[in-house]
Amino acid sequence: MAKSDSFFIRASVDTDGVNFNQTSIDLGSFVDALGKTVMRIHNVSIQYGSAASIPNNPAALGGNAMTSYQLTTQSQLAMVDADNRTLISSGKLVGGSNPTIAGSTQGNFTSLTDFADLSPQEWRNGYLVAVESIFLGTDSVNTPLVDNVTIVLECTVETMTASASMALALSQQ
Question: Which pLDDT score is estimated for 142?
Fold first, then answer.
């Protein structure tokens, strides 16, 4: 298989704490299953929140909150589990607080943890993608901890036989 130099794809999706939000990432300039061109994702990096944002304090809503993300090969209506064949990567930011700390009724953060819940996020041989769009989705529990989720993918493009690339594309839909 012929390989290209690695390149990076970036995308963001806003959180609102109420609805599942999703954005599509166009791969049409990299992927053409009929033309035998596929993309290999080598690793996934996540930024929770815009550069200037501070995580929301979950104490205002009673203690705990979570913001999740997922990267899939097919559009979704909600978050999916790892047994869904379209899931490439997923993770979450979980915040906890204790409303009784220092006598405050609003409480303070007691924990803020980033989970890469579909490990690894860096693959030894990469994750092949043969669809022309992938989808970055996010959802929150209780309150959004951050205003958006941004993903950075390190990728390469390579060629496969027409039958192999079409079979891969069909398996990802």
Answer: 75
